[in-house]
Design a protein that fits this description.
alpha/beta; TIM Barrel; Lyase, Ornithine Decarboxylase, Chain A, domain 1; 7-stranded parallel beta sheet; 6-stranded mixed beta sheet; 10 helices; 17 strands; 25% helix; 22% strand; disordered N terminus
Amino acid sequence: MAGRTLTDAAAYARLDIDVAAIVANWRALQVAHGGRPTAAVLKSDAYGTGAPQAAAALHAAGCRHFFTAHLSEAVEIRALVPGSMLSVLNGPLPGTEAEYVAHDIAPVLGSMADIGWWAAHARPLGKKLPALLHVDTGMARLGLSPDDVTVLAADPAMLAGIDLLYVMTHLVAADEPANPVGHAQLRQFAAACAKLPPAPRSLANSSGLFLGPAFRSDLARPGAALYGIDPVQGANMQPVARLTARVLQVRDVPTGGCVGYNETWRAARPSRIAVLGVGYADGFPRALTNRGAAFFDGVRLPLVGRVSMDLTTFDVTDHPGLAAGAWVELLGPNRLLADVAAEADISPYEMLTRLGRRYARVWHG
């Protein structure tokens, strides 16, 4: 499988995605889940890596459960995952009923209003419609409260017309194994499920898969780990994304000369500055100003001056062979995603999902 949005000749920067690594990570997560069913969360364009490409590859590898955040994301990939469960985590919006049914997409119902809406739509159709039920056990975002569960348990007819595929919850701090909140959530989730009609359960996210057998369920829902982000130390997910950018110019700056907006960097010696066609409009963090780096031929190139909207500058004084047209590494073997994110004081999740659409995207494997 391969594809791109621009030819390399037209690109200022290029994002290479290893789809085979996404599949390998999914298989490793299946093992962590004890061989039990393991879904793929494809929200935010598969965390910026390309949802259609990831969906097709994962489906070919045997994945049969997929999640997105928005209905539009699910519609985009529906034809690529035939015969699979496809569900929308953020829940239904009024007026979208027909689209859910037409594309065989199961909403996640996270409120009493959601349940009433979906059941009311099922009744005139004369058939049950698939859905998942979200129970809140401490995240306080989406999901049924304990009081909602009690009301629903007292009147299970409210679920008439709904084919309940799974009851799910979302872990608050699965990346903190010593945090007792996870086990408190297990207890609360078990208590809620005991009140509800019998249904399979879905629990662990990427980090939760590494908390041990108690956190295994009928369906895990990993996201970030699929795309090379280690959810816990030692998870050893395979890297997926490599970002390179083209050198547009190499400029000479004298001692005392400044580079970039507001003169935030001043040359302490005669310097050579490489200008790259990538900036914060491409999702390259502005917070890397005067602290980030690139690599060329294994040599570190310090980022100097401010990251601007479309351009970023690097000190290449100690690499005289670097010239206009060269490609340098911004993410990759020498610039690990987690390390770059830490330098920018953001999470690896944010770093990956913010990568923009202007890159030439190339998928491998």
